[in-house]
Amino acid sequence: MSSNTLFKLCRAGYIVLVIQLCAWFIYKGITGEYSPVFTALWIIPLLLPLRGVLIGAPYTYAWGSFIICLYMLHGLTLLYVTDEHLLFALIEVLLLGSLLIGFPFYARIRGRELGLGLKKKVK
Questions:
Q1: Is residue 36 within 8 Å of 115, Cβ to Cβ?
Q2: Closest-CA residue to 18 (of 99, 104, 78, 76)
């Protein structure tokens, strides 16, 4: 798969995830289940890699995976404990799973194209 195709897929998946989770946490804040501070604490980390993901920075894709892990815990927990929001949790986990696979692959492929990476020690 080319880096351009992977970039488009990862970017689209990330945008869908941001929209879905922001809508979820804002809804929970409006209904009073979550406080505004708690809602902000869930949304802000999700938005940190937004700029780098949109422009295709390989470094952002590499460290963005760590942030996605936090939301994967949320999705898996929700999937385990809920009956009412099962479809939401399933979509969240599938999106996050695909991004956890796609982000590092894009970072690696694009990083190689750009000549980035760890430099070997010259003896």
A1: no
A2: 99
Return phi, psi of residue 61, to 5°. -65, -35
Is the Cα torsion angle 46, 64, 9, 11 positive or negative in sign? positive
The pair of three-digit structure tokens given for residue 72, joined into one six-digit string: 């994967």
Measured CA distances, 111 to 10, 14, 46, 71, 97 (Å): 15, 19, 23, 25, 22
What stretches of 13-110 adopt beta strand conformation (E)?
Answer: none
Which residue, chain included where needed, has tokens 């994967």? 72
Nearest to 44 by CA among 23, 22, 13, 20: 22
pLDDT digits (tens, 9 = 90+) for 45-84: 999 999 999 999 999 999 999 999 999 999 999 999 988 9
